[in-house]
Amino acid sequence: MLSPNERMVASERTDSTVSGISEVARRAGVSKSTASRALGSTGYVSEDTRERVARAAAELGYVPSTSAVSLATGRTKNIGVIMPYLNRWFFAEVLEGIQEALLEHGLDLTLYDANPGSEGRARIFDDYLARKRFDGLIAVGLEPDHRELERLVAIGRPMVSVVGSGETTTLVAIDEEDAARRATEHLLALGHERIAFLGGRPDRHWAQVDRRRLGGYTSAMEDAGLGGAIRHIHSDVTLPGGYAAAVNVLGDLRERPTAIVATCDEVAIGAIIAARRLGVQVPSALSVIGIDDHEYAEMFSLTTLKQDPRAQGRAAVDLVLAHLQDPHRPHSILRQRATMVVRSSTAPLAPDRSAAVTDARA
Amino acid sequence: MLSPNERMVASERTDSTVSGISEVARRAGVSKSTASRALGSTGYVSEDTRERVARAAAELGYVPSTSAVSLATGRTKNIGVIMPYLNRWFFAEVLEGIQEALLEHGLDLTLYDANPGSEGRARIFDDYLARKRFDGLIAVGLEPDHRELERLVAIGRPMVSVVGSGETTTLVAIDEEDAARRATEHLLALGHERIAFLGGRPDRHWAQVDRRRLGGYTSAMEDAGLGGAIRHIHSDVTLPGGYAAAVNVLGDLRERPTAIVATCDEVAIGAIIAARRLGVQVPSALSVIGIDDHEYAEMFSLTTLKQDPRAQGRAAVDLVLAHLQDPHRPHSILRQRATMVVRSSTAPLAPDRSAAVTDARA
DNA sequence: CCCGTGTCGGGAACCGTTCCCACACACGGT
DNA sequence: ACCGTGTGTGGGAACGGTTCCCGACACGGG
Lengths: 362, 362
Description:
Strand content of chain A: 5-15%
Number of strands of chain A: 12
Largest sheet of chain A: 6 strands, parallel
Structural class of chain A: alpha/beta
Largest interface: A-B, 63 and 63 residues
Strand order of the largest sheet of chain A: 2-1-3-4-5-11
Number of helices of chain A: 14
Oligomer: homodimer
Order of helices and strands of chain A: HHHHHEHEHEHEEHEHEHEHEEHEEH
Radius of gyration of chain A: 27 Å
């Protein structure tokens, strides 16, 4: 803790420290422009003066004013990040990845939380983004509608999406459909046939991601000649959502699937918790597979298709920087590969399912 | 999706739209200064010209340059938020609350993720904050060390902390000690005596919060004459951390407590999951109480002391704005009250503990 | 009729940088 | 001896706003 006195001193020092580059210049005995050149890396400056200026700047604790720099250069040294949720694992991880990478490049991050359907979201698109407080924009799982996309384009700043469609912007994502397909095929290979897909709900805010994953599941089932067994259990894409949906489904013994492909690990874990509650043994009576490799996946021994959202965030930063450097760089799609992590939430189909159930009750 | 053609148009419009206030002025047939006055709310402008200017601005899609405005006014219309974690429930919720409130005030948010012990954290304090890209700062659960606090003070911008100590800055938080004390007293009232505290680890990064909560637990125990039964089980303050710690503790039948005060809901839920795994019935064989009222609390029927992090975030915004308006406003402490939410993870101590255990195995 | 007072508008300074341009100087080649 | 050319430096105009100051004008009261 600082004593009030020390605080006073610190604050006074601060006040005198608002000195601009001209004070630095004066102290170093050079002109403003020379000081600017010395501090920056452009133009001719003798090694001697460069040092003098650097010393003067250090002594004064000089920090260039970001607004002045932005005004003069047209660069904000700031990247905007817009995402619909903050409190879901994937989004928070991506955000941390972005933040890490930006930190290394000396860039700031301004955050826009655009909750689907909120009035705030409209304001962000109409007012906030137009302010262009950033050099580039990263949209994470945004899934903009037509009007929103229009706005985004109108900003005229490089933009990259993490998760979503890559038709209009550069994209980094895993192949959602492929991931779900592989998850399903894993279960098929284990002998399961009554495989249900858990997650998503075809309504206004139904995420494209979940739709794509459902698509991957569907085509895997069809390819296996199990088109008739396709079953989509609606669920909020959250852990409690998965739990609630699974409780209902698993409660009905006759309708119960032997395996579940969850749209993401949160939902999968919800299902596992539901199964435990109902005495349905995982994996002997029910196999569950997710997508993500969530922080909790290991603790629940969840088999999953691992993706690395942090790396996606970092990649997004690299890409937006590349676009910044070369404005004519064409859009691109960076697909990261999801890798299967087999733990023990999946197992071969038990020869007699009812036996397994009995086991669970023993 | 926009066709390439439409995109072109939009982008061209954008390019011509970079028009400044002088273009607006010209179009409205007034001078720059009049236009500025008309758009802002200061000074005398006739209703007539105000309208003409407004129309011209609208037609041109004029958006003032934030850097120019900041440079001229000294206000960035931006609030910095610095926090050590993004992917933990409490922090994400506070952040959303802050974001919501800022949105209503037309302010932007720039985020600094200062993970304790990371090199990034040092850079943030040394370089990033000094840039003063913000009018005010909100620190969430930051717990700065001496050097960091010095930096923070040196910035010379209003600052409010959410969670932490209010000695140097304005603070909004619940009374951590009181919350833990009440949690403990709840268990005591139910007849429990072997009550353990779960969470935190006295090491370099041990959060003050957990220390305070441990303190509340300790004094409640002492006041009940149970000082000898005090037991602090170390655990990472995460759900898997609580799980891992609880698994070990509950595995030992003789040492097993009859009730657990967890430092937060994530840890509490981890403990509940561990108990279920081990066949220890909650609440008949083990009562668990947490602090937070986490998103998952209801799903696990967790008794807890509810706090409202979103509201804390909003309150922090109000406070920082108040400090901005009145620079001489003294530091203050805003204590939010934690309210007990009784669900069914806590119950009276079973007369015979071993009987309860047998029950669980039945 | 003259003069405050209340409105309205314009010119110019200023915010703190960058950057273009002009200039000075030293040096080597012709 | 003279003239590029390559370096180092300073002056000053942007960048895009806000805001102070002052002049013009209308109006009503003394």
